[in-house]
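Example 425.
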Amino acid sequence: MNVLLIGSGGREHAFAWKIAQSVHCDNLYIAPGNAGTAECGRNVPIDPLDFEAVSRLALEKKIDLVLVGPEEPLVRGISDYFLAHDNLKHIPVIGPGRAGARLEGSKDFSKRFMQRHRIPTAAYATFTRSEIDAALDYLDTHPLPIVLKADGLAAGKGVIICESREQARQELKAMLLNAKFGAASEKVVVEEFLEGIELSVFVLTDGDSYVMLPEAKDYKRIGEGDTGLNTGGMGSVSPVPFADEALMKKIEERIVIPTIEGLKKDEIPYKGFIFIGLMNRSGDPYVIEYNVRMGDPETESVLPRIQSDLLELLQAVGQGTLQGQQLEIDPRTAATVVVVSGGYPGAYEKGKPITGLESVKDSLIFHAGTTQDEAGRCLTAGGRVLAVTSLSEKAENAVARSVENAKNLNFDGKYFRRDIGFDLF
Ligand code: AMP
Ligand code: GLY
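Predicted structure in complex with glycine:
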């Protein structure tokens, strides 16, 4: 098969690494990819949001399957674009159409979906600009802290947890009246704060059947001990000790099955990954959010544990024959440490030469934000630069090895957390 993978982060390098191992993979193209994906296939410098360019590439390279890594092309309708063109519609796109992608693209839509299908989630209300007075009144009686969410995509920044009513009033006004997140905050979801510990659960579905992938936990804060600003993710682990059989059973029965059935009832076709961000509230799971893609950096811990042929599974999703597929899972713990640019998640510099990559023998390195210059040198090209994943029977050893190897990777200003998994192991 000829495969086209869309995206350029650590998640996509992990996908490329896994797909390239498949006996079914003849050629792998990554658009646009990074210096790491270039080792697994051919990078093609096109913009994933330029659907015409993507489809030209798909035809030219006789692509048999497209896998979309990030959410934005999905929310903008890349799957619908392929289906709407006679010369493209035979090519399965793994990733939902615009309708399904609203699970991530609109918080209000996803809350209404959960309510409609009785999926446990935080209580909420949605307000638009014209409802500002009602929204402010609503805040007056809301218990603290108050969670405000911009309805649309806001590059992971659209959620604000307000510790005081005054802060909530200011933030709500900034979002609704002053377009703090542009069009994304034209609508705001005001939500109950859920106390508990977070978990990321991943489902792959062909719209009818599903398989659950290994769960993971990610570490979003920049500082050790989960302090400081939120980032795209500083590390992840899989499996998660508190996600025992009893909790996973509740998650499957109360959340996964009603989600798949809900999509069917709502007549929303869905072929792709569903990433369910959950809060474990004293043994009961609540949905915080849906994403219509895999997590990053969770993918870098999840895929190395999957022993089955991923391309075979994706092909089954495309053909609608996922039913009965079983995953073989490596029981060891995978721990991922993300090495980031100094200053991230604030302003940071790019173009710093990276050294030490060859010295790492006993961990996997997934490139997140890297590029190659004409001389073939690897340079930093983003906030999150590299993800180091290690597998071990003992979780602590997996973390320790990833931390050791993160020390062996060098570029000006690098930073990483040494305490991934600190709350679990
Ligand atoms: P999101 O952008 O939806 O991933 O939200 C960012 C983070 O905010 C989540 O990963 C949670 O840590 C936190 N969060 C969102 N909603 C809630 C909630 N209702 N209660 C507690 N924490 C939340
Ligand atoms: N790790 C969280 C995300 O991918 O959104």
